[in-house]
Structures are given as C-alpha cells and as structure tokens.
Specification:
Layout: H1 11-26, H2 30-45, H3 54-77, H4 79-103, H5 106-124, H6 126-132, H7 139-148, H8 150-164, H9 173-186, H10 211-215, H11 218-247, H12 252-267, H13 270-280, H14 282-300, H15 306-332, H16 340-368, H17 373-382, H18 384-400
Helix pairs in contact: 1-6, 1-7, 1-8, 2-8, 2-11, 3-4, 3-5, 3-16, 4-5, 4-9, 6-7, 7-13, 8-9, 8-12, 11-12, 11-14, 11-15, 11-16, 11-17, 11-18, 12-15, 13-14, 13-15, 14-15, 14-18, 16-17
C-alpha cells in the first residue's frame, strides 16, 4: 500500500483525522498538566528558584533530542509505532516524575521530565500524520482539525490538575500518577490509524534534497523560523505564567484557570484556521499570528490583574495557533514525500531547540530579573520583541522576493 492509495474523497484521511483528534484530546491533556504543575513542582524541589522552570525546559529538550529519532522510526516503521513509543515514554516520564516527588529528589524529577519530552516530540507529529493521507485541498483543514482536538485537552488537563494536585500529602504526586493512566489508556487509539508506512526507495528513485538543501529553500527556511518563533514565544510566556500568577498573590487554581483559557485559545481557532489559510493565503495568516502575539505582550505589560493575565494568555494562544498552523501548512507543501522523514525531523529539532532555549530563559527571566514577580513578568514579555522582529522580517522578505515560478 502506497501513498497513491489515498481515496479521492478523503475518506481514509478523515478516519485518520478522527483518531488523531481523539489522541490530541486524551493524550494531549498531559501537556497542559505538565505546564501547570511543572514549574510549581520544580520550585518546591529546586534549591535555586532560578531553576524552577528547568523541569519544563527538560521536557522541551527531550522533545528536541527525540525529534529526529522519532521521525526516523516513523519513516521506517510507520506513524503507529512512533506514536506508541511516545506514549510509552510519557507513561515512564510520569512514573519517574512521581517517584522524584515522593523522594523529594529534584534530579530524579528532572529525569522524568526529560522522558516526558519524548512523548511531546511524538505528539508534535500528529499534525504531520493528519496530512499524510489528505488531498491538497483537505490538507490544511486536516492539520487544523487535529490541532482542534487540543480543545478537549485544554479542558481535561487543568481539571485533572485540580482534582489530583492535592490528592496526596505530597503536592502534585497525584497529577503525575494520572499522567501514567492517560498514556496507558490513550495509546490504544493508535491501533485504529490507517496510514501507510512509506515505501522503501529503490535505487533508481529520487532521494530528495539533503537537509542542507532543504534549509536553503527560502519557503522552508521561513516556515521553520515562523514556527520556531511562534512556539518559542508561546512557551516562554506560558511557562512563566503560573509562577507570575502565584507570585502576584493569586492562587494555583487561578493559574490553572488562566492556563485553561490559554490552551482553549490555542485550539478553538483550529476549527476555522484551515479555512482562513485556504481563503486568504498562508503568509497572511502567519503574519496575523505574529501580530496577535505582539498584542499579547502589550496587554501583559499593562498590569498584573487577573484580567490582564487572562486576556494576554488568550491572545497568546490565538497568535500561536495562526502562526504555528500556518507555518506547518507552509512546510508541509514545500517538500516531497521522499523528503518527509528528514524534513519533519529537522523541523521539529530546530523548533523545539528554540523552545528549549525559551523555556530555559523563562525561569531565569521570571525569578531572577529584578526583585519581584512583577519585574520578572515584565522581563519575560519584553523578551518577545527580538524574536517577533526576526520572524516578521523573515516573512516580509519571503513575500517581497521577486516572483520565480521555479522556486518553492
């Protein structure tokens, strides 16, 4: 069975999208859970408050390091195997994280976070898997629908945190035990996927461009930059948010509610992002995403009332959605099937490399910039400016380049 077996009416693609939406909703719930409690748990375990967000940074680092191996596994054995590897790593990460909390050991807790990053890497390929069997017309919608599955995750994850964070004497232990169950139960969904394993290339088939040649392709380079900046800025601000909210005198439940609104805003637009891309063009939607991210930073700098946190984080989610889905769509249309494994692995390596740096910077900016939570929160949001300038400049350069029908 080859990629040419895709049905013209996208029935196969729609079935796969339904499975991936469910996986996004159930397995994806662990990601907002980790982002809500990771920094708070790290703050309770770390001897240096500047290292509070290190657990989240290691999740992202693990995702970056796993991106190329996971992509290679999927290229050789198929999406299902890669996704099962990710869910297994997520369960092990939850188990080791729970053990670290039980012992009060920050290093063991960090090991669990690193393993959780393998799940996060596999999770990132849901959007690419949605495009595998989709026609050109359905592809942006397929990617968008799968991302929309995060809407349920945005509700499920924070509610599980509320139910489990104080379920045991040791704070957050119950949350990490819940993560184990989510991965074990959710992994069964992947047995319903019907995505052909890429055929092994024969000696006379084109091998596609090398990684360097792919990176030199203007449209691919700009897509990676915009995806990296959109995701990095979202992570930079979201990672600091629970620390800022609690540091400004509000409760952990307030932080969970704000993160819920943020993750909802990340995924609700996915119901129509694909349609907007098809109607207005991918470049305009990416540009709109970057502009909304900038607006989120401006709102956050206006004050530290709950309303400011809620509005800033909602705008941050919408901006990420347009910027990241747009960049993903741009990338998916810019490489050949035989280049899929190396291109998608390289993309996620670079994107999550940028996100790793952002999450590392987040804790330092939040806890070690000035003497208060307000000063730290200000530093976090000001740090958005150079990255937005980079992405906006790259996108403008691409749009203004002289037309050349031979290039992509």
């Amino acid at each position: 069975m080859t990629m040419s077996s895709t049905l013209p009416d996208d029935r196969q693609a729609k079935r796969n999208v339904a499975v991936l939406v469910a996986a996004q909703a159930i397995l994806g719930a662990q990601m907002p859970m980790m982002f809500i409690v990771g920094g708070l748990a790290g703050q309770s375990l770390a001897s240096n408050p500047c290292l509070a967000t290190l657990p989240i940074s290691l999740i992202v680092l693990g995702s970056m390091l796993a991106a190329t191996p996971i992509s290679a596994i999927m290229q050789k054995w198929g999406r299902r195997v890669g996704f099962l590897v990710g869910a297994t790593a997520g369960a092990l990460g939850g188990l080791i994280g729970a053990y670290g909390l039980f012992l009060g050991s920050f290093p063991i807790f960090l090991v669990g976070s690193l393993l959780t990053g393998i799940y996060m890497s596999a999770h990132g390929f849901y959007r690419f898997a949605a495009a595998d069997t989709a026609s050109d017309n359905f592809r942006p919608k397929a990617i968008s629908y799968v991302m929309a599955g995060g809407l349920a995750a945005a509700i499920i994850g924070p509610q599980i945190v509320k139910l489990t964070s104080e379920a045991y004497v040791i704070p957050f232990l119950g949350t990490y035990l819940a993560v184990i169950g989510i991965n074990v139960l959710g992994s069964a969904l992947f047995f319903f996927l019907d995505i052909p394993t890429p055929a092994k290339p024969t000696a006379d088939e084109p091998k596609g461009r090398s990684r360097l040649e792919l990176l030199k392709t203007p449209r691919i380079a700009v897509a990676i930059i915009c995806a990296m900046v959109s995701y990095a800025l979202m992570n930079l601000v979201m990672t600091s948010t629970p620390l800022a909210v609690v540091g400004c005198g509000f409760s952990a439940n307030d932080a969970a509610d704000i993160v819920t609104s943020h993750v909802l805003a990340m995924y609700v637009p996915s119901f129509f992002t694909g349609h907007l891309i098809a109607r207005f063009g991918v470049e305009k939607i990416v540009a709109l995403g970057l502009a909304i991210l900038a607006t989120a930073g401006l709102v956050a700098l206006q004050g530290v009332e709950l309303g400011n946190f809620f509005l800033a984080l909602v705008l941050l989610g919408v901006g990420w959605n347009f910027g990241f889905i747009g960049a993903t769509t741009m990338l998916a249309a810019s490489h050949e099937p035989q280049e899929r494994g190396r291109m998608q692995g390289l993309n996620d390596l670079l994107v999550f490399g940028g996100v790793t740096l952002a999450s590392l910077a987040s804790g330092g900016l939040m806890n070690c910039s000035g003497g208060s939570a307000i000063e730290g929160w200000t530093a976090v949001n000001l740090a958005m400016i150079p990255l937005l300038t980079l992405a906006g400049g790259a996108l403008l350069w691409l749009v203004l380049r002289p037309a050349d029908p031979a290039r992509v």
